[in-house]
Design brief:
alpha/beta; Rossmann fold; 434 Repressor (Amino-terminal Domain); 6-stranded parallel beta sheet; 3 domains; single chain
Length: about 325
């Protein structure tokens, strides 16, 4: 079994210095800290969790605040949660998953309980009532998502504004002139959920720049709602030839509804989705898509939080650029080919 003295010997420091690096009780030079951390990794040293918590007055637990609100697609949420849990374990931390509506009172209760060292907060709204409290709490926090006013907060997410723009740009380059965004269920927009609002804003702004006709419609992920939404869309916009779907469970239902309405993909309708790669790849017609990088966002959120716990500087905002993968569902507009 590797001991702390083994780590100290390999790093060329005293055992107490290794303890200080682990506990954060004293300021250690960056070079020494890197040397100790490298020795820990190379030797596979795993300090006793109880001893570490006692020495550092920490619980070695992170709270993941992931309210299971209506309209949110659970499988994607769990990809975030899995990445957070896996990365946290790499830092000898466990994760307390909070799935209830943790408003201001809930966050204050968690912070006062001494159960956790830090917070990761999901399902961020543009006017998020939790933001002022997160700025004031003694616990460090990272938000997966951006409120409208993000000053004083540490936030990370896919750049959803750029995502909407990227989808429209792809369709514009293929010659499409009338496009629609079929988005999350209505309640997601009604709450002011950041990712939905930002995608719609980017989509609309880009369509305006390209001189395209565009519309944004929310959609419930049911077969009846998908058919009703498509029928309404084609009635109001008979020249429609391009669609962006930002609603994972509704994607196959909307594709089916378009086909039932006589729209072939991609001959009559080019389809782009914002969704996990596996969903796009396994569709009946593989869908051109911008991937949701849930694993990367979850991992980097934990890394940001661990840096904050160890008093290392972090950027206030981390926006991951969208990456569009072209597949069989998009093609030049027929009249432009």
């Amino acid at each position: 079994m590797v001991k702390i003295t083994d780590v100290a010997r390999r790093a060329g420091v005293s055992p107490s210095t290794v303890s200080y690096v682990l506990s954060g009780k004293r300021s250690i030079s960056a070079a020494t800290q890197r040397r100790v951390e490298a020795s820990i990794r190379e030797l596979g040293y795993r300090p006793h969790a109880g001893a570490r918590a006692l020495a550092s007055s920490r619980s070695n637990v992170l709270a993941l605040v992931m309210p299971l609100r209506s309209g949110i697609h659970l499988p994607v949420q769990m990809q975030f949660a899995g990445a957070v849990a896996t990365t946290a374990r790499g830092h000898d931390h466990d994760v307390l998953l909070l799935t209830q509506e943790e408003g201001e009172d809930g966050l204050r209760r968690v912070a006062d309980s001494a159960l956790v060292d830090a917070l990761i907060v999901m399902d961020v709204q543009l006017r998020d009532a939790r933001a002022p409290l997160l700025r004031a709490l003694p616990l460090p926090s990272v938000l997966i998502g951006f409120p409208a006013e993000a000053d004083g907060l540490t936030c990370i997410d896919l750049d959803f504004t750029a995502t909407g723009e990227t989808c429209v740009s792809h369709l514009a380059q293929l010659g499409h002139r009338c496009v629609a965004l079929l988005g999350s269920p209505p309640e997601v927009y009604a709450r002011g959920t950041g990712f939905a609002q930002r995608t719609a804003a980017g989509f609309t702004a880009a369509a305006r720049r390209y001189g395209m006709t565009s519309t944004v419609l929310p959609c419930e992920p049911t077969r009846a709602a998908a058919r009703e939404t498509v029928d309404r869309l084609l009635h109001d916009h008979p020249d429609l030839t391009g669609a962006v779907v930002h609603n994972e469970p509704a994607l196959p239902l909307l594709t089916e509804a378009f086909q039932q309405a006589g729209m072939r993909v991609p001959e009559d309708l080019s389809l782009v989705a914002v969704c996990p790669d596996e969903l796009a790849e396994n569709a009946a017609v593989p869908v051109t898509s911008v991937a949701i990088p849930a694993a990367e966002v979850g991992e980097r959120a934990v890394e940001l939080l661990m840096a904050k716990l160890n008093d290392r500087p972090v950027p206030d905002a981390t926006l991951l650029p969208p990456v569009l993968t072209r597949r069989a569902s998009t093609a030049p507009r027929a009249s432009a080919s």
